[in-house]
Amino acid sequence: MFTTITKLTALALAASRYAQAVPLPEDVLGVPYAGISTASHEHPTTALLIVDVQYDFINGTLGSDRAYNILPTIYQLLDEHSWGMIATSQDWHPQTHVSFASNHPGHASGDSVQIPMLASRYNETQLQSLYADHCVPGTIGANIEAGVQTRLDTLLGKTPITQIHKAQNQHVDSYSAFADNQYYEFTTLAPEMRARNIDKVVVTGLITNACVYGSSVDATKFGFGVTVISDGVETTSAEDQATALEELEEWWGVNVETLAKYEASE
Ligand SMILES: *[C@@H]1O[C@H](CO)[C@@H](O)[C@H](O)[C@H]1NC(C)=O
Ligand SMILES: *[C@@H]1O[C@H](CO)[C@@H](O)[C@H](O)[C@H]1NC(C)=O
């Protein structure tokens, strides 16, 4: 499965190289939460998963104009819904990370290279897509977008919130919030969801054909019912968005629906 993700990611990356970093539209982004809960939809056994809504994927080194589209949807899911648990994931890479083209002399962002499988006794390798440096702790690009972050700050203490800082191991990438791309190490997310009696997860965030894809697939493998909110996830082109959502639905049994449809069905 990660072959597919890697292939899709390489395509997305090729497209994103042409995306220009642009300033965030003031009227849409960073709108703080009023602090008054208007939650009218309650989901006590569902987790809201917000994947990698970090500046580097919005207006930073891997940014795209399309990323802005999802923010109002995510704000609404935080303002007007209450969840059994909220989880955020962030890429959290050391400067030496294997996914950075800058660590592979002679290679550029958009290339792929073979890297060693960490637990392999037979020196097997895995295809790794290469990217511009991104999501290094301490840089603005690693931060969660302010409108989302202020809402999380407000909800802290009212709703259980788990923050996953993934892909810290320099030798292996991690698209999924549950595990790295080699299943060498797992995060605490699945056991925390089980401990809180969560049986379903609603997935939003960036980018659809890489970290949203990997997180959704792993959630199905762990036995959670998965809904991806189609207007709450984005990637660098309409074509990649459609392909990834179709695969999630047809190959992995993921429920894909708009926020409006999700709200109407609850
Ligand atoms: C992206 O937007 C944030 C928030 O407005 C800003 O602080 C940051 O400098 C922007 N990044 C780039 C690369 O323009
Ligand atoms: C794996 O690579 C190491 C170091 O190059 C070598 O010593 C070993 O024989 C290789 N193992 C296999 C199964 O190919």
TrEMBL record:
Keyword Hydrolase: yes
InterPro entries referenced in this protein's UniProt entry, alphabetically: Isochorismatase-like_dom, Isochorismatase-like_sf, Isochorismatase_Nicotinamidase
Enzyme Commission identifier(s): 3.5.1.19
Domain Isochorismatase-like residue range list: 46-249
SUPFAM superfamilies documented for this protein: Isochorismatase-like hydrolases (SSF52499)
Molecular-function annotations in GO: metal ion binding; nicotinamidase activity
UniProt keyword annotations, A-Z: Hydrolase, Metal-binding, Pyridine nucleotide biosynthesis, Signal
Single Gene Ontology BP annotation: pyridine nucleotide biosynthetic process
EC category name: hydrolase
Source organism of this protein record: Schizophyllum amplum
Family annotation (PANTHER family): LD05707P (PTHR11080:SF2), PYRAZINAMIDASE/NICOTINAMIDASE (PTHR11080)
The name this protein goes by in its record: nicotinamidase
Pathway as given in its UniProt record: Cofactor biosynthesis; nicotinate biosynthesis; nicotinate from nicotinamide: step 1/1
Similarity section: Belongs to the isochorismatase family.
Domain of life of the native organism: Eukaryota
Signal peptide: 1-21
Taxonomic classification: Eukaryota, Fungi, Dikarya, Basidiomycota, Agaricomycotina
